[in-house]
Amino acid sequence: MEKVISCFRKRPEAAVRLICFPWAGGGSLHYSRWGNLLSPSTEVLAVRLPGREGRAREPFLENMQQVVEEVLEVLLPLLRDKPFALFGHSFGAFASFAFAHALKKHHDLEPVHLFVSGALAPYSKLRLNAPRRSQLSDQDFLRWLTSVGGTPPELLENPEVLKLFLPALKADLHIVENYRCEEPDRPLLSCSVSCFDGKEDVPHDLPAWRNITSGEFSIRMFEGSHFYLKDPENQKILLDLITKHLETAEMDYL
């Protein structure tokens, strides 16, 4: 499991697990650190996909089904013994939803809470009609990446680092651009869903996520752009909100 899942702070007595899916091109490090920041009642499991970090030599996954199946294979045995929640930002929002959908459809399991951040609903027309960024030339791709914000300038100006970073980012974007999900006629989930985003990010039509669940639904906007959650003040607020929701879910679960 350690190859696919990173857990900096193991908490076997934790009441709930928070499973975090990376943004496009991202690894597990950012979320793994949350294990030191959240309360002892929460154990953080950060997903590590092929082609990055300790899995840099492995080929990238090609579609969302492969992402879901790989994570499901290692985590399914753990998901029946205690409640769990899912968090995903950008690419991770689609991956966490696809994971939740597969769990419900094939295993009759649901998270107690789904947190999605910085992403359109998977069936949004805005998403389906969006430009295919993964097919841009490196020059145009970097120009777009700079406009999104959140990527350190020193990273964008370092050719050696970019050689490592761009392939993973483009591979993940390719997965997102080819991921399709029909708008449901009825809610696919019954858990609570929270949407987060930066106020200066491109519009993501967050209310469209409402249709995936019959449970409670909320939206919270933060100061900042696409990577608002990297800001320390925003991160503190975000983790406080997650903690509050998980504590409520734990009480309902009991």
UniProtKB/TrEMBL annotation:
Domain Thioesterase: 17-244
EC identifiers of the protein: 3.1.2.14
Keywords, ordered alphabetically: Fatty acid biosynthesis, Fatty acid metabolism, Hydrolase, Lipid biosynthesis, Lipid metabolism
Example GO biological process: medium-chain fatty acid biosynthetic process
InterPro entries on file: AB_hydrolase_fold, TEII, Thioesterase
Record's catalysed reaction(s): (9Z)-octadecenoyl-[ACP] + H2O = (9Z)-octadecenoate + holo-[ACP] + H(+)
Enzyme class: hydrolase
Key word Chloroplast present: no
Keyword Lipid biosynthesis: yes
Molecular function per GO: fatty acyl-[ACP] hydrolase activity
PANTHER family: S-ACYL FATTY ACID SYNTHASE THIOESTERASE, MEDIUM CHAIN, THIOESTERASE
Sequence similarity: Belongs to the thioesterase family.
Descriptive protein name: S-acyl fatty acid synthase thioesterase, medium chain
Protein species of origin: Austrofundulus limnaeus
Gene: olah
